[in-house]
Amino acid sequence: TIVHYDSEPWIDTVAKFHDFRERELSSKPSFVAALDEALELLRKVLDEYPKYGADVPIQGFHILCEDQFPEATQFIIDVAKRYNIVVTEYPGPLKTGLAQLKDEQPYVIAVLMGSRASDPCGKYMKSNLQWTDDDWPRVLRVCPILSWSYRDVWAALRGLCIPYCSLYDMGYTSLGGRSTTIRNPLLRSVGKDGTVRYV
After folding, report:
1. Were both Cys, which of 64, 74, 137, 194 would link to 98 (CB 3.0–4.6 Å)?
2. How many CB atoms within 10 Å of residue 167?
3. What is the pLDDT of residues 85-124, one digit of tens each?
4. Are 97 and 91 in contact (CB under 8 A)?
5. Residue 165 gets which letter from DSSP?
6. In what order do the strands lie in the sheet with 110-112?
7. Are residues 26 and 41 in the same domain?
């Protein structure tokens, strides 16, 4: 199988996205519908907040969990540089970090997230646009890929050559703290020579 590769996926992204969409349309129409839904949600947010654009740095935040993988930390640093994201870090847990974010930046209304309905906390989301619960700091959660399957995520990552954390190549499918996160045993493979690999 020939794998499409782009060493600079952050350059000319709109044209690349449209090319990817066309490549996928004939074989995976439901996936393309999910892509379109995610894109439409992002358009709505950008229409609501027009001050953001290509030349404006994205404001991001990272809530630090205890015992974080160094690979995850490095990935965040690399992505922030590559995509012009200004990342502010807050101590965890999540609720505490969000409270500090709102104290320091009360103008933050919407938070773009990568949650999916099949994620542990994503299963409680009823919509891809949803306010936090009353006992949480008030932010609008924007989850454009909420309805995506695991397969959809990887189709987009691979098809658009979007960089991802190296831990996924090591057999991890869900990341938390190092002491509580294990490799997915379903991805474990032992070669004839006894070498363990994760696919």
Report:
1. 137
2. 18
3. 899 999 988 899 999 999 999 999 888 888 888 877 777 8
4. yes
5. -
6. 110-112, 140-142, 129-131
7. yes
In a domain, 73, yes or no: yes
Residue 156 in 3-state DSSP?
helix
Tell me how many degrees the CA angle 146-33-12 measures, rounded to the nearest 5: 90
Cα distance between residue 115 and residue 162, in whole Å: 17
For residues 104 and 187, state if they share a domain: no
Range of the domain at 190: 166-198
Give CA 70 to chain center in angstroms.
18
CA angle 16, 39, 20 (to 5 degrees): 25
User: Would you say the pTM of this structure is higher than 0.85?
Assistant: no
User: Which of 27, 5, 3 lies closest to 162, judged by CA?
Assistant: 5
β-partners of residue 189 are 197
